[in-house]
Automatic annotation (TrEMBL):
It comes from Natronorubrum sulfidifaciens JCM 14089. Gene3D superfamilies: MFS general substrate transporter like domains, Multidrug resistance protein D. The keyword Zinc does not apply. This is Transmembrane efflux protein. The lineage of its organism: Archaea, Methanobacteriati, Methanobacteriota, Stenosarchaea group, Halobacteria. Its main location: membrane. PROSITE patterns: MFS. InterPro entries: MFS, MFS_dom, MFS_trans_sf. Residues 530-555 are annotated as: Disordered. The chain crosses the membrane at residues 7-28, 40-60, 72-91, 97-120, 132-153, 159-177, 198-220, 240-258, 298-326, 346-363, 375-394, 414-433, 505-524.
């Protein structure tokens, strides 16, 4: 137990954090009623949580390089527990934002990269692959059973119990934390790169904010006014998203230049250049990023489709996704040893193909006759694909970097994931909802034999989106009771047809992203790299580090 305790500790930690996000999403309607607020306000807490995590994950990832790994994990868990307690006791949205978005989000920024670091330093070769497979499987289970647990607690007790039960989980994890290495990654204590920290926060925050705003306000041209307080920000008729994205890209460009100058001056950068110029590592980061885009899109549209069209409850949605959980856990924990017989790169590409085939099968099945039993095969196949990828990609990516710099590499990988997840939610989510609302408007206009201009149609779609955002179940039912039976039947038919259309179109878009993921995977190395072979000299001096960095750049 002592040997595998570090893997158990970080896997359970990841399970709790992933479960927390799932619980929050399911509880949104209930929290709107309890706090007497709007859906947008509660969704703002979710967005702020993502923003805080993305902003802090890169500087937080360097903490194990300067402090005891065990102590960093224990303190992060205690802070997370404090945020959980505040969120469970919150009596208004301000306290909820404080506990869930700010405190828990900050702790999660430390926890996510730390999990990879702990596994890298605790295990080698096959055991490391098994540990990463376990981490991937547990994460998949958390995202799947979260809606089941959250739905049951919200329906039969209170959403607050979902937060309270996490405290028990933190207590269990703290027991296993005692077996995590007490040593920092580096024997020489490095000072915090304050300039790099500021630039990384500006870059990550701006990019994620831009992606979050793009779905509602448009990517380039103003889709609707963006107002903060009494100030409107739509310069030259543009969307605010393009400005945030521009600032984010400039921030990261400045970050790379600043890190280069710092390293040439013989100082300690936030992320050493030889990490940023490591080809196998960057190939893994890019593939991991593309996979997160696809996963974010799939887990955005699929539960919405199951509940809004097929009428499934949160519990039934979890049951429908159960084959995904089982196969993703099975393949992520069993297949790491397959690399002895099949190249890890080939296994990843087989997994990508499985995901694509599963999405095509779901596209073919989409319709009124779709059932949980019929969906079981493609959902299981999708889970198998994800399991094959995650069993290899994290280990492959992190192993490309010397162990001494695994904390910095883990931070980069997690920033990539945060950006990819927000991009996937923005692109896939906005396309799905835009297609749905557009089809609803078209269906109503056809039923009324009306024709409008393209600009008027866009205005109608935006008005329908705004109305849906602020409507609770009670207000929707109140609206429906005012309609005649014929009108209600017409609207139900239009909504159903629009959702089927949106689901099919978005599944095809996801297939396109899977093809891009397959292309990205061609740049991966065929075998798991071992960056620690002959790289111990990197720790000897800043000059040695700088020389290695410049050599990597020239190569």
């Amino acid at each position: 137990m002592q040997y595998w305790a570090p893997a158990i500790a970080v896997s359970l930690t990841t399970f709790i954090v992933v479960l927390n996000a799932s619980l929050m999403n399911v509880a949104i309607p209930t929290m709107v009623d309890e706090f007497d607020t709007t859906v947008t306000m509660i969704q703002g807490a979710v967005a702020l949580y993502s923003l805080v995590t993305a902003a802090l994950v890169l500087p937080a990832g360097t903490l194990p390089s300067r402090h005891s790994i065990r102590r960093v994990l224990a303190v992060a868990l205690l802070v997370y527990a404090g945020g959980t307690l505040v969120a469970s006791l919150s009596w208004n949205t301000t306290i909820l934002y404080l506990g869930w978005s700010l405190i828990q989000g900050s702790a999660a920024a430390v926890i996510f990269p730390l999990t990879f670091t702990v596994l890298i330093i605790s295990y080698e070769d096959d055991d490391r692959a098994k540990a990463f497979g376990l981490l991937a499987g547990v994460s998949g289970v958390g995202s799947t059973i979260g809606p089941i647990i959250g739905g049951a607690l919200t329906t039969y007790a209170s959403w607050r119990w979902g937060f309270t039960l996490q405290l028990v989980g933190v207590g269990v994890v703290l027991f296993f934390t005692q077996y995590v290495s007490p040593n920092p990654l580096s024997e020489t204590r490095r000072s915090l790169d304050k300039g790099g920290t500021v630039l990384s926060i500006v870059g990550a925050t701006s990019l994620v904010t831009g992606f979050l705003l793009s779905g509602k306000y448009g990517w380039l041209v103003e889709r609707r006014p963006f107002v903060v307080g009494e100030l409107q920000f739509n310069p030259f008729g543009t969307s605010p998203a393009i400005w945030f994205l521009g600032v984010g890209l400039l921030g990261f460009a400045a970050f790379v230049q600043y890190e280069r100058r710092l390293e040439r001056a013989g100082k300690s950068p936030l992320v050493p250049l030889h990490v940023l110029t490591n080809r196998p590592f960057l190939a893994g980061v890019f593939t991991y990023n593309m996979r997160s885009i696809v996963s974010a899109g799939f887990f955005f549209i699929f539960p919405v489709y199951l509940q809004a069209v097929l009428g499934y409850t949160a519990f039934e949605t979890g049951v429908a996704l159960l084959p995904y959980s089982l196969t993703s856990v099975l393949f992520s924990t069993v297949t790491p040893n397959w690399r002895k017989y099949i190249s890890p790169k080939t296994l990843i590409q087989i997994g990508i193909v499985c995901m694509g085939v599963a999405l095509v099968l779901l596209y073919e099945q989409t319709g009124p006759s779709q059932t949980i039993v019929r969906m079981a095969l493609p959902v299981a196949l999708y889970g198998a694909g994800v399991g094959l990828i995650l069993a290899q990609i994290t280990n492959m990516t992190m192993s490309a970097v010397p162990t001494a710099y695994s904390a910095e590499a883990s931070g980069v990988l997690n920033v990539s994931y945060s950006i990819g997840f927000s991009l996937g939610t923005a692109v896939i989510g906005s396309y799905f909802l835009g297609r749905f609302y557009g089809s609803v408007v078209d269906g109503v206009l056809r039923a009324e034999h009306e024709t409008v201009s393209a600009e008027q149609r866009t205005d109608l779609v935006i008005a329908l989106e705004d109305a849906a955002e602020t409507a609770t179940d009670a207000t929707q039912q109140q609206f429906l009771t005012q309609l005649t039976p014929a009108q209600r039947q017409l609207l139900e038919g239009i909504f159903e047809a629009a959702m089927f259309d949106a689901q099919r179109a978005t599944l095809l878009l996801l297939v396109l992203f899977v093809l891009l993921l397959l292309i990205a995977s061609t740049f991966l190395p065929r075998q798991i790299p071992d960056a620690d072979d002959g790289t111990d000299h990197l720790e000897s001096s800043p000059d040695a580090t700088r020389e290695a960095s410049e050599t990597a750049t020239e190569d």
